[in-house]
Amino acid sequence: MATCFRLSRLQSLLLQPQAIRSLLPCALRSFTLNTNIRNKHSSCISKTPRKGPSGLKLEHPTRPKLLQSLPQRIVAMSTTDANNINDPSKQTTDDVETKPKIDFLALKRERERRQQQSSKKRERSISPPPTKRETNKASRLDSTTTALPSGARLTSFSSTVSNDQQMRKSEIARTANDKLQTSPATAFGNHNADADKHAPSHATKVNPGGLQYPKGVVKKTWAFGHERNGKDIKLEEVLESQTLKTAVISAFQWDMDWLFRKLNVQQTKCIFVMQAKEQALKDEMLEQTKGMQNFLRLCFPSMEGLINCMHSKLMLLFHPEKLRIAIPTANLLEFDWGESGVMENSVWLIDLPRLPNKITTDDLTDFGKELMFFIEKQGVPQDAREGVVNFDFSATKDIAFVHTVGGMLYEDEAERTGLPGLSQAVRRLGLVTSEQNLDIDFAASSMGSLKDEFLKNVHAAVSGINMIERAEAANSKAKSTFFQAPNPNANNHSIRDRIRLYFPTHETVTSSTAGGAGTICLSRKWFEDMSFPRRCFRDYISTRPGMLSHNKILYARGLQRTEAESSDAKKIAWAYVGSANMSESAWGKLIYDRRVKKWKVNCKNWECGVLLPVSTEGAKTEAGEDGIVDMEVFKDVVEPPFMYPGLEYESREPWYFMEKH
Fold first, then answer.
1. Per-residue DSSP letters for 423-473?
2. Residue 165 domain boundaries
3. What is the pTM assigned to this prediction?
């Protein structure tokens, strides 16, 4: 056994030259000694292999099988050579191997050098920061990473939300979205001069929590790799997490891990307004966040019946001295807020000062009343709704909160939401125009199954016509003329000449920075339908090269005439910024309910946005447009983020998100 142990140890040290020379003589002498003993007592040792419990043959412990497996160069070494190695007096100069000395001081210096290099590495940033910053520029609002006490549950919650959102999209759309999530930051290496384009060049000192936008403003979302000019904004700058106490946030899609890195949950209480179509999904998310109610509560608007999508995007951000209301077109995703430099959105925000005394809902402006109506329908907790009336809404008296409440609404409630609600807002703000003198330019990221009838409804609502009265008149007229042939001269203007829809072509998307997109949606089946208004479409080409768009912006320009249709017409212009795309699901459909004999509006989505009047004083007019103002009128309020006038499609195709490219 002793010989076997030594030989096993010898084999394990074969790759160590120094150990071989020192161990081999001893092993050989031990082997020789044991061999002599075995020969002397051969009569006592059975030459028949032993058998184990399973009948397996066991090799004799003294057989030098391990020695046979040694490399040939070791076996060839003679016993004399081994003895010479073991006897220093017989060693030659060539036999002596100088042992290498270890420089511990050099190793220590190398270790310290590597530690210094590691400490100098830039920490991972949520939004890639510039490498250079001028002294007159505001410091970047860094996000806060917080160690959450319920980390395991939060991970499960994030996974549940992510899995649900993945199931809403096809595999092709998910693959296209992967391109949007790839940040181009790595392409810049160590942030060369080109990468510094994203540094703010017109930034001003910001007092977090102060009234930065008391009159409201529309900004583009920041885009990595593009120069900042004071007209864009990051999510960190919207949230102002340093002073944020309560945040009511709604969106269609979420990246929870990314969002929580933008918030300081040690001081901010969050209410997330989310979609959960099935009760099982709702119960699962509530269970996963059960232990987080000290900083997170979930709100699930009704998804019953025909409701298909909780698509609204709204932020109520409560600070000690103000309420910031933000309405973005972006979801809560990294690429929607420009951090991968491939997708652009817009956001309207306003800062309302805190009042010394609480007021009632009746004391609010029309904007405030519609906001309260909407969040109550969504089921936002009462304490959050009561907090809204602690702030001064007087700055919103000349703008309108426009919404779509999911489900079926009747009578007065029907007039407040969807297309009827849009037309009501236009009338309240005195923006009614003649249908014959109204142009609409609508940039959207999703197009529904459009028909001329729906385009006419949108055009009528934008002009300010009472939609229910219009529907009643059309219904009565249809009954009275049921047996008459239609009059071809009844409508002297084509609706397709009055509406332009901005949506990217296949070439524009594939040649963009991302090269594809799963959130820009249009179906080939709809577009190639004979009744689809293809003539209305224009190519959406961003003013920021290479960017794709997730915007939903409607521009309205028209003339307001008196009953006598006098030539002295008032020029009208306004814009809508919000979550609603160009589809019947987003704006609702008026239907007469024969069972209850009342008009109702059916809405499949939850949506919200803001209507902003634009001054036309001194504005230029377009040639051949009967005095309608030029698109430049929007430059200082909602500057169009796309090239205007857009190119017609002609023989080109739109981007089909459901097809492989």
1. HHHHHHTT----GGGEEEEEE-SBB----HHHHHHHHHHHHT--HHHHHHH
2. 152-478+494-634
3. 0.74
